[in-house]
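Q: Could you predict the 3D structure of DUF1572 family protein?
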Amino acid sequence: MDKTESIGAYALELAIADFRGTKKLGDGALKQLSEEGIGWKPEPESNSVAVIVQHMAGNMLSRWTDFLTSDGEKPDRNRDAEFEEKEWTRETLIELWERGWKALFDAIESLRPDDLLRTVTIRGEPHTVLKAIHRQITHLSYHTGQIVYLVKAARSASWNTLSIAKGQSRAFNEKMADRSNE
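A: Sure. Here are the predicted structure tokens for DUF1572 family protein:
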């Protein structure tokens, strides 16, 4: 394996890890989402968790289906409809979430290092595969953060943290230091 291929393999490995980390945060928030919380929003102009999941799934399905061979904005995608409130059960919302992520992981896990500099299009605009991947990391992380915020706000004191709990940074850092000294 030459140096460029090695860098490409590492870039794909990091991207997959970033996507898995983002999905894990979203999964952790969605596990805490109640049926009542699906459509909750803090004020009228905000999006609910349901709307954000609709949008993320629509985006992932459009971008990652036939990723290398067709424009990432599929003709049958109705992006505006993704921002309309619909009646969802928690179960069907999670199914939609999983379907979007499956499309992403099926596509990205099939890529090879030499695919990273290939050109794909999104809304007719050319991107390298690497640029398209990073565009998605940014986009999906942004919306996952919104989901985490909304579920946390809706649950308030009953929220179970997904990272280091408030006031626990020192203990966490000491634990990590102890691990590195082993």
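Q: Anything worth pointing out?
A: Strands lie at 119-122, 125-128.
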